[in-house]
Amino acid sequence: MPQMLIGGELADASGGKTIEVRNPATGDVVDSIPRGTTAEVDAAVAAARKALPAWSALAPTKRAQLMHQAAERMKAAVPEIARILSQEQGKPLAHAVLEASRVSENLEYYAGLADKIRGDYVPLDDPAKIGFTIRRPVGVVAAITPWNFPLTLMANKICPALAAGCTVVLKPASTTPLATQRAIEVINGAGFPAGVLNTLHGSGAEIGDALVRHPGVNKVAFTGQTETGKRIMQLAAENVTRVTLELGGSDPMIVCDDADIRRASAAAAIGRFFNAGQACLAVKRVYLFRGIAEEFTAKIADRAAKEWKTGNGLAEGTKMGPLHTEAQRAEVEAQVTDAVGRGARVLAGAKRPEGKDFERGWFMEATVLADVPEDSRMATEEVFGPAMPLFIVDDLDEAIAKANSSVYGLGSSIWTRDLAKARRAAEGIEAGYTWVNDIQVAYDQLPFGGAKQSGFGKEHGLEALEGYLEKKSVVLGTG
Ligand code: NAD
């Protein structure tokens, strides 16, 4: 059974309790993990605090070297870790391989920045004084991650944190701890000093809460639901702990009447059905110009029905795994039922696949709905599953207004050959990202983060590194 990593040692929970991790495709137990308690929270934070002075003072090139070595080790471990990820999360093995590979890429990117952190020389009016800014790591980071992309979202936090000289206590979701624990052990094996990287496993409400309100934590880097993010913000206020919140989304996609419909429909299908729709950045509301609505609708319905073969993540040819939990599937089904009950038309899916292979897992077919009412749950809530609502608009003003009618503001996209329209969308849509004629993929080099209730703070890019550093002013009196 995997354990927690605390202060360089593998540890069980003090109460001896464990949590079973189940395969969403079969219901079988994949493995168990310790159910950590507040005693382990205290121990992990203490270990991270103890390790902080030496880690932050270590030569930046040495930190970079360790991260490069960790990246090499992660590359070699991809086949093993991807298999664990597919089993505990449900995603197809090929997609788990992609995700596991992203960890070493992210390590490399931030390893490259570790020795490029610097401050400024600032001339002051008084010639007898010199102003400087210096950069200091924020300190101990609590990294809390969800179950949909456990490895990517872990890497998004630990890589810039390590490069900046911070130490980390990581708590993955209790339903996807296994691949994360293994990845941390592989990374740690590169030779990080004890206490630089620590893991805790268990319930968010118990140890997650305790971690966020712990006075020894300097920053909480959180990815998860908006509701949980609100609670974290409240808890963090107790010690004025800084937070970055990567929360829910309901990304609009606008397809104009001059768009390349074949490419747009292919991107929409990937954007909605990849990871069984359980992605923060995902095509969650599609606004079609009236002139191309019929053509796009026929194409996307066809793609949903024919191209998104659902099945066990480890089975050959599976393109879409099950939903991650029974509750997750029930929620998406309820959102679809609500829309259909209010008059939406089912163009594909809206049901569970049948047959022996699907009896024990949380499967759902790729679903496309037209005529979805704008006050239905699919339009107003985040749909975290493989169900796509289509809406028709008459012009770009209407499309942008409707795109902005959500409480969320994470990603967005527009398909058009008209640069003026693309520019208006890029400037007008309230979101952290707009893709023009391109698929919704986040890049290491570009900052990523939400607007409105999708959160604040950035992951990826130089900006993520900034989030783990503090700028301090220094005045040197030379008189
Ligand atoms: P969740 O909020 O239920 O859980 C996320 C993590 O928070 C888990 O590790 C959980 O154990 C922990 N947690 C729960 N309650 C806590 C508490 N009170 N204190 C501290 N930690 C607590 O989210 P989820 O269901 O695992 O993930 C899906 C959500 O994440 C979706 O809304 C999705 O859009 C969002 N998400 C956002 C991004 C982004 O970058 N913006 C990326 C991926 C997922």
Beta-strand residue fraction: 15-25%
Named at the architecture level, the CATH assignment of the largest domain is: 3-Layer(aba) Sandwich
CATH class of the largest domain: Alpha Beta
**What is the helical fraction, as a range of percent?**
25-40%
The structural domain count equals 2
Decide which structural class fits the backbone: alpha/beta
Strand order of the largest sheet: 14-15-16-13-12-18-19
Mean pLDDT: 97
Multimerization state = single chain
Return the CATH topology of the largest domain: Aldehyde Dehydrogenase, Chain A, domain 1
Q: Report the total helices.
A: 14
Short description:
The protein has 479 residues and is α/β, with parallel strands linked by helices. It has helices spanning 38-57, 60-89, 93-111, 150-164, 178-188, 204-212, 226-237, 261-273, 290-307, 326-341, 377-380, 396-403, 419-428, 461-466, and strands at residues 4-6, 9-11, 18-22, 29-34, 120-123, 129-137, 140-144, 167-171, 197-199, 219-223, 242-246, 251-255, 283-289, 345-348, 367-370, 387-393, 408-409, 413-415, 435-436, 451-452, 455-456, 469-477.
